[in-house]
Amino acid sequence: MTVPSLPVPYTRRRSRLADRLVPERLRAKARHLKANLGEMGVDPFGYDPEVVQYTALPLAWLYERYFRCITKGLENVPDGRVLLVGNHSGQLPFDAMMVATAMILERDPPRIVRSMVEKWVPRLPWVSVFFARVGQIVGTPDNCRRLLELDEAILVFPEGVRGISKTFDRRYRLERFGTGFMRLALETHTPIVPVAIVGAEEQAPSLHNLKSLAKLLGIPAFPVTPTFPLLGPAGLIPLPTRYRIYFGEPMMFEGEGDEEDEVVRGFVAQVQSRLQSMIELGLRERRGVFR
Amino acid sequence: MVRERRKHRARKVVLATGAAGNLGRLVVQALHREYDVIAVDRRPISGLPKDVTHLQTDVRLRAIQDVFRTEGLHAVVHLGLLQNPRADVNAYRFNVVGTQRLLELVSRYGVRQFLMLSSANIYGSDPDNSYFLTEDAPLLGAEHHPEIRDLVAADRIVQSFFYRCPEVETVMLRPVHIVGPTVRNPAADYLRLPRPWTIMGFDPMLQLIHEADIVEALMMALRAGTKGVFNVVGPGEAPLSRILEVLGRRPRPIPSSLARAMLRRAWNLKMTGFPPSELRHVQYNCVVDGTRASEALGFKPRHSLRETILSVQDPLI
After folding, report:
1. Predicted ipTM?
2. B304/A38 Cβ within 8 A
C-alpha cells in the first residue's frame, strides 16, 4: 500500500535554508522566542518565528555594525504584558527595528516586540505580508487590546507620523503625544516602559517637509534631506549614526481607561516628561553623533 | 380549528429551507436523527432519508403557510439564502423577502426556535480590519462585495427580529468559509482550482470550517435553546499560501489591478463563477472571533486545520 505523500511542511524546508545562512548564535535567540503557533507554523496573527530567524541576520548587522547600538535598562522590561513607549524620529522607522532587535539580541529571555504599524501598511504588496510574518500589526485599538490581553510586548510611538517626519531643527523635542495608548494601558492594567532612542534623529536630517507633495503622492511625509531626493532612492539610506536605546523603569497608572481627558492627559504628560529627561540624559552621555 | 388539524408526532418538527443544496442535505440528515424534518426548496430535492417530508416550493408562497398552520413546528432552520450571485437574477428579492416572510410566519404561529445561517463574509475583507472581529463589528461586506448586499440585508432583518419577537429563540450563525467534500461555494471551488491565482504580494490570514463541523454547530445551537448571533470559526487561521501548500497547489500570482480587470472582464462575459469582488478575500484579512460560540454553545470543531483544508480534495459524493 502506498502512503500518499503530503507536501513537506513549510517550516521544515525553510529552517534548512536558515540553518545555512544564519549563525547559530542568532538562531538560538530566535528559537527562544515564545509564540502561540497553530498547525501551519504561524500564530493567529500571522507571526512566524521562522521568518524572524531570516531577518535576524540583517537586523543584527544593522544593530551591531551599522548603528552600533548601546542599549541600557533592558532589565526594566517585565516578562508579562508591557507597553513600550518610544520617541519616533529619523524619517524611516529604523528606530522601531532597533528596539525590536535589542529585545531579541540583548534581552534574556528574548521577546518579540509587536509594533503598532500605520494603517496603510496592509494595503502595500509584500510589505503587508512581511510585517505580518515578523509580528507587526496594524495599530487599531482592538488589535492592541487583544495583544496586551495575551501578555505581549507592544511598541508604540504616541507621536506617530508627527514624530518621525519632523524637521532637523526640532530634533529631540517630543511632538504632541496621542492619548490612545494610555487609555489602553489603563484598561488592560499594563505597565508602561518609556524607551528613549538617541541617534535616530541624525540618521536623516530633514531640512523641509514637502507636505503638499506628500499629499499628492498619498504618503505621510516627503522629507528633503541632504541626500534625498537628490540621490534618488539611494538617498534614503540612513547615515551610520550611533544609536543609544534606554529602557526606563516601568510606570504603572491606576484607572479603567474611561477617565476624563484631563486625567488621561496628565498621565500622558508624566510619561512624556520621563521620556524627555531620558533623551536628555542620552544626549549628555554621548560624545558625538557617530561615536 | 387549527389545533385539531395538527398531526400528532412523537418527535419535534423542524422545517429546513434550502434543503436541496449540498450543505442543506447534510443539515437535513443531521436533523433527521433528532427531529421530524420538513425539507423545503425551490429545486427538486433528492438523496434525503425516506421519512423526510419534501416540499418543492418557494418560501414566499402560500404552501409554506399551510405547513406552519398544520404542522405545529418547533423550529425553522433557514439555510435557503441564495449565496451564489450568478444563480438567479432575482436572488436579492428571494433572500430578503423570503427571510422576512419566514419570520412573519414564525412569530404568527408561535414557532419556538428560528435559526439562520448567515456568513462571516458580511463583515467584509478590508485592510483596515482588526484581527478577530467580534459579532458587534460593523457589517461592511457589501461596500466592496455588492453581490452580498442581500445577505447583509437578511442578517439585519433577523437582528431586528430579536427585538420584535423576543419570545422566539432566534439564533444566527455567521460561519467562516465552509469547505468540504460536498459543498460548492466560491471558497471551496477556489481551493479546488489546479493553479489558483493569488494577488501578488498579498497573503491574508484565512479561516475555514469543515462542512461537518458547521452542521455540528448548527445542531448544538438548536439543542442549546439559546438566542443570539454567533461567529463560527474552524480550527484556527492560516495564511493563504500555506493552505495552498498543504493542497500541493502552485499558485499563479497576478498583480492586483490586472487580476481585478481580468476577472471583471471574465465575469461580464459569464466565463467565471467568481465575482470580481471575491478577490478581496485573497488580498485582505477578514478574521473573526469565535469565542462567543465556543463559550455559549460549547462548540469546538472536530476536524483539524489540515483535515479541513484537504477535505476539498475528497471525491464528491
Report:
1. 0.86
2. no
